[in-house]
Amino acid sequence: MKKIGFIGLGTMGAPMASNLLKQGYEVTVYNRTASKSEPLVREGASQAATPAEAAAGQDAVITMVSNDDSIREVFYGEDGILKTLAQGTTVIDSSTISPGLVKELAAEVHKLGANFLDAPVTGSKPAAIDGTLVFMVGGEASVVEAASGLFDTLGKKVIHMGPSGSGSVAKLAHNTMVGINNLALAEGFAIAAKSGIPADSFLELVQLGSAGSKAADLKGRKIIDHDFSNQFSLALMLKDLKLASSLTDATGVPSPMLNLAKSLFQAGQTQGFGDEDLSAVVKCYEAWIGQTIGGKPLQ
Ligand SMILES: NC(=O)c1ccc[n+]([C@@H]2O[C@H](COP(=O)([O-])OP(=O)(O)OC[C@H]3O[C@@H](n4cnc5c(N)ncnc54)[C@H](OP(=O)(O)O)[C@@H]3O)[C@@H](O)[C@H]2O)c1
């Protein structure tokens, strides 16, 4: 697989496409806001005017867009990829979308004689830049194997979860835990801060103690510094929790912590923090305790 169409150059997609270029792949990029393609074109990518153009004649097409609606537009739109997808092309969707839509897309793509993998990722913007993402993949094992060179360029590990839709389900279960872990961190910080424990000391304890987590490692310092620059937006976290909640409704899995987490991230979104990093949910706790985690009174 050498010729790649890459659709969606946001926080994750742009560094992923850049890593493919660095490894010598021939990459054709498409982004809805065309100006975001320019840095990739400077790195050697070709620019497509539509998803259909980006998908035509490629060995593989990778999609990395926001949500179910975006994916529907990229696949089924007037200039969607289903218009030009060639027999034998492998479509790899790395967006986090619903398992039901994944199965529908896989069926559409298979009808054209092409292959489909749902391959969502974990590891945020830094892992996309470093090429150390972890892929959780649904689809046929032989197709996963044939795409292994691509996955190795973009990530450090591929875990085959099962048939189409399994990658998506694994991602939603995983991100349920990401949301809960981030809330656990915010709540711990709030309890400690309200009684005057210095935030730095508390974070040091958490990272050494049994409460340690990737959330603490990735977001603890951001919370103390009030640096809510976006790595994974609060709005996208809420989107994933809503998808997970629909899944547990459909499968009948009791999920009280998921639904509490969904409500708390919804509160963050309602407060206007949706475009900030998901760690900005701590600002809800700061409002409740009347001070910042760093100890300053709220303005
Ligand atoms: N950020 C993370 O840490 C992370 C980690 C794992 C998984 N994910 C998942 O990966 C996906 C992308 O995340 P991200 O952080 O890169 O998001 P992002 O920065 O918000 O980028 C979203 C991308 O989707 C495009 N898009 C949105 N609607 C579209 C439409 N209707 N048609 C065509 N393109 C459309 C956007 O185009 P424009 O530029 O025109 O808006 C942009 O390129 C999401 O499903 C997210 O849940 C993110």
Automatic annotation (TrEMBL):
PROSITE patterns: 3_HYDROXYISOBUT_DH. Residues 3-162 form the 6-phosphogluconate dehydrogenase NADP-binding domain. GO terms for molecular function: 3-hydroxyisobutyrate dehydrogenase activity; NAD binding; NADP binding. Gene3D superfamilies: N-(1-d-carboxylethyl)-l-norvaline Dehydrogenase, domain 2, NAD(P)-binding Rossmann-like Domain. The active site is at residue 171. Pfam families: NAD_binding_11, NAD_binding_2. Residues 165-285 form the 3-hydroxyisobutyrate dehydrogenase-like NAD-binding domain. Belongs to the HIBADH-related family. This is 3-hydroxyisobutyrate dehydrogenase. It comes from Paenibacillus rhizosphaerae.
